Fold this protein.
Amino acid sequence: MSTKNIVFKKICKDKSVGVYMGKRDFVDRVDSVEPVDGVILIDHEALQGRKAFVTLSCTFSYGRDDMDVMGVAFRRELFMSTRQVYPPLQDREKGVHTKIQARLLRKLGNDAYPFFFEFPDNLPCSVSLQPAPHDDGKQCTVDFEVKAFSAESQDAKVRKRSSVKLMLRKIQFAPEDEGAPPTVETTRDFVMSDKPLHVQASLDKEIYYHGETIKVHVNITNSSNKNIKNVILSVDQISTVVLYSNDSYVKCVDIEDSGDSVPAGATLQKVYKLLPVLANNKERRGIALDGKLKHEDTNLASSSIIREGVLKEVNGIMVSYRVMVKLIVGGMMGSSEVGLEVPFKLMHPKPDAARESELEEEMVFEEFKRTNLKGMADEDEEGNVSGGEDMAPKEK
């Protein structure tokens, strides 16, 4: 039984240009980033003598485009690069950089032209802060977009029906070199207590994958005369908007209210389990995601890892995670808290290397549209429509 190689397509309304790409997610390996490649299919009759261009951009934005600019909406292009694909500025075959491009050119025929972009190594990954209910639609995002369009020149006004936009994702996988398992401990002295309270919290490893249970090892030695009334553990996601405000948003994405108590002079050794996943946080706004909430392949945003020497400000939104261990200590004057913060990284596992045989599999063309979660509206994000069968590739 042969497997299939998916190719994503999207075509503008006037059918003048269509984009074909082998993937929608591109991997940042910290020291290098996967290039963005694909093929543009043109329709000479619809072009009417115009040229065809393709642009790759990275944009940080806050607020909707239709909002008042005065302190409400903010938009900044972190990167933009434009290529002319038709008429070609070089021999068509010299523009082929990948095997999937070569296969698409054979499949689509002589009206198809390749494009290829390389990311700078200082750009952030895709992040979207979901607005809270009172924010009335405001969004804070780092987006990547490929835009193909036809126009008289690169700087000419582009008609909406002659352009097509495709939202990409730039994601990071867990590095192969992992640090030591994090361990944090503290000792607290109390008034009118001869001996202290000692708490230690540790994790099995530094990096956890999305959907993986986090085991937190907690050791409590309560040599004081105070009673520990409860032990509460949680996972916090910290999102820092470093580009223009340096605001930080701390959101709890999982919590365990254990109800465990540790009397004076007693000890406790226990392993607690936490599971920070988007499925348990769909109603919570203000959390950072790696895509749109309505898409089923969206996860909590991964921990940000930047190359040494790159300014954090360029990254737009920085995301980190920590396990919080909080002890509620009883006392005559009321309760107090003793807390620990254990940092860790939450990331995607590095996938297996692609098999060479995949390049010889049957190509199946699908619309460049991510699958929505059940019950979520299926709206077109950029106002473009598929070209239907008018520009569908003919079998060779």
Remarks:
- The chain has two helices and 21 strands.
- The CA atoms of residues 291 and 330 lie 43 Å apart.
